[in-house]
Amino acid sequence: MSEVAITIQNVSKCFKRYRHPVDRLKELLFPGKQRADEFWALRDISLEIPKGKTLGIVGANGSGKSTLLQIIVGTLSPTTGHVNVQGRISALLELGSGFNPEFTGRQNIFFNGQVLGLTQRQIEDKYDDIVAFADIGDFIDQPVKTYSSGMFVRLAFAVATSVEPDILVVDEALAVGDEAFQRKCYARLEKIQDRGGTILFVSHSAGTVIDLCDSAVLMSEGELLLYNTPKYAIDKYHKLIYAPTEKIQSVREELRRLNQKQYHQNLSQDTITPNLTKDIGQNSSGVTQQAGEVVTEKTAAEIINELPTFALQSKPFYDPNLKPAETLSYLSRGAKISNPQILTRRKEPVNNLIGRDNYIYTYEVEFLQEASKVRFGMLVKTIKGSELGGASYRFPDEKLEDGVVKAGTKVVVKFRFNCLLNPGVYFLNAGVSGIVNGHFTYLARCIDVGMFRVLPEEDSDSTGIIDFMIKPNLTVDEVDETLSVSPEMKILV
Ligand SMILES: Nc1ncnc2c1ncn2[C@@H]1O[C@H](COP(=O)(O)OP(=O)(O)OP(=O)(O)O)[C@@H](O)[C@H]1O
Ligand SMILES: [Mg+2]
């Protein structure tokens, strides 16, 4: 059994929420009457994090990730339960923590170093390294309150990682830095891993959690729903957040049950540590858990293969809540786009799609002005706005009189497409261009006119954004023993 870096035992956290700020004061002055609503941000969390491992923490906004990290770090105390940390812990929590905004960067380095238990001499020794890593130029002598959020994270990350912590806690911070800096940060995290450090890492980036972490927990509404391999936790996280509203509870229930089942399988310490203490405890679903029965040497992959598969949504459907928050329509210059939707081949409108199925993206265009050389366009984008692919089609001249679309013409545009995307949420643009009054121009253009999600799929091997429908073909070459003394295996892909 490997050593444990952090033990979390039955930790719950209750926040008081006051409807009016003055209620907080009234409660202080006139104790006895409860003026606040209680809000349980964490519910009975138990977890053991082995030394030298990197744990990812995933979950929707408000699920309790930062609260849990703050309790581990000690900046918040649990309402009930205990946390035991073995070793020096250094943290990069959500923006704002740890630094005094009035101090300069330089002063904050010394201030933080002392808080982390370093002597003046030790900080001086590390100072140049911290400044070089942060790379914020003369700003190092400016008060931290004048920093951009990127500069702030640069300095905070440099300090948190330079003090050679036994345990490093990183809350989402890296998303703020630019790409070059992020790469540098990951290299540092890998260095900490190599020298046996333990890392807790909160991130919404699926790829990063899968790449960086040894295991991951999924948080949901203050509950630790599951503890498993990063890929498994991310898949289930997606399943949960992409579930239609009325199904969320049943998905949660199912994940809870699966976690229980694994718990009883008592996974080997080197793959996944099931949530728990050595004795009998109650988990949040009220089921008694017991650890310490049989220790098997199963790998995480084997365990996942044994899990019962979900009754997954195998049909596309329409979720009325899934709508773009905002559509940017450029001023019409001769045409109007309306009624954008995605249809199945049976013409049913849907916005929850099954990967690799065929759909039709359709919208209507009304021409308010005569135009020639008319083209209709579509574009699919990620949440961050990366353009994944699209098309622009010319209105065939033979369908028109003199190659001209007359004012008053209404056109139904249909693009058939194969949804070669991995689970996630995507946005659609629509546009019409052509020659109006002798100039080539957009007649109408709508950004984020539609939104759809691709539903998670069990047992999918595809990663990234695009599903290239990759088919592996692995052949093991026969080894000619006369040529080689020691056995060797060649795998040709
Ligand atoms: N000091 C506080 N007082 C009252 N409620 C709080 C306080 N801090 C956090 N909460 C609530 O606790 C819940 C969990 O918050 P937390 O910040 O841990 O979520 P999170 O998982 O880190 O979310 P995110 O992904 O947005 O960072 C939220 O509903 C939040 O509103
Ligand atoms: Mg948070």
Give the domain tally: 2
Separate helix tally: 10
Radius of gyration: 28 Å
The CATH topology name of the largest domain reads Rossmann fold
The quaternary organization reads as: single chain
Which range best describes the helical content: under 10%, 10-25%, 25-40%, 40-55%, 55-70% or over 70%? 10-25%
Short summary of the structure?
This protein has 493 residues and is of the alpha+beta class. The protein has ten helices and 24 strands. It is globular.
Structure description:
There is one protein chain. With 493 residues, the chain is α+β, with helices and mostly antiparallel strands. It has ten helices and 24 strands. The strands form six sheets. Strands 12, 15, 17, 18, 19, 21 and 22 form a seven-stranded mixed beta sheet that branches. The longest helix has 18 residues, at 248-265. It starts with a strand and ends with a strand. Mean pLDDT is 81; it is low at 264-312. The structure holds adenosine-5'-triphosphate and magnesium ion (MG). The site of magnesium ion has 5 residues, from helix 2. Magnesium ion binds at residues 65-66, 94, 171-172.
